[in-house]
């Protein structure tokens, strides 16, 4: 029989993590496919997983946004993939349940009741992976080591939405994946780690997003290990170089395709 005293000591020594993400069965889920499979359970304990609605808005509004982004042809190609994923029950929440990880539901991560629930879990760190809400002060201050976020863009140049798209449109040679501390100002916290994913001359947004999600999971695991060991060092951003990108317009998508890239 396993020694319960030793088990308790081991559990107490592990980095306690709360994960906050959005319900995305097409792209963000690839991060969690890799993360749940690869994170070292003897070093880290996931004490809560929160999965919010994508964009934190009704599904009809998200569908309208995606239709406008992809256009009718690519939207028609993407929709069966989404419906197949939903019909199969494939979701981030389902992955967490299969891994026997506790789900921590909420309407808003900034609600007092949610922040209180997080604090009761006594996390060492809160990890944002495409979380659809800006974290406010009470949540940012509710864990021992603060909150960290993974962003598929070089900061502070590619702050904002859809950084993968904008880097491809702007002719960058690679996507810069960034893990950074979270602050009240969006995408302004110190950088903890980066990695890169090469962009081909004529590439597919679909391929690049999936690839960066998988690589990002490995980067997040290595960053969490650095935090646990106390060796993580944050590099402050020069916000005089900051830019902000909003959700791409149809004109931006047209320019993206003219560059030779494809959406799917």
List the helices and strands and how they pair.
Blueprint: H1 4-13, E1 15-22, H2 28-38, E2 44-52, H3 59-88, H4 92-98, H5 112-121, E3 125-129, H6 137-140, E4 147-151, E5 159-160, H7 163-169, E6 174-181, E7 191-198, H8 205-229, E8 244-245, H9 250-258
Parallel strand pairs: 1-2, 1-3, 3-4, 5-8
Antiparallel strand pairs: 4-6, 6-7
Q: Any key phrases for this structure?
A:
alpha/beta; two-stranded parallel ribbon; 8 strands; 264 residues; 9 helices; six-stranded mixed beta sheet; Rossmann fold
Provide a brief overview of the structure.
The chain is of the alpha/beta class and 264 residues long. It has one domain: Rossmann fold, CATH 3.40.50.
- For this structure, the CATH topology is Rossmann fold
End-to-end separation:
52 Å
**Total individual domains:** 1
Structural class by sheet pairing and helices: alpha/beta
H/E topology pattern: HEHEHHHEHEEHEEHEH
* Averaged pLDDT: 93
Q: How many DSSP E strands?
A: 8
- Reading off the top of the CATH hierarchy, the class is best stated as Alpha Beta
Low-confidence stretches: 1-11
Describe this structure in words.
The chain is α/β, with parallel strands linked by helices and 264 residues long. It has one domain: 3-Layer(aba) Sandwich (Rossmann fold), CATH 3.40.50.170. Helix content is 43%, strand content 18%. It is built from 9 helices and 8 strands. α2 links the parallel β1 and β2. α2 packs parallel to α8. The N terminus is likely disordered.
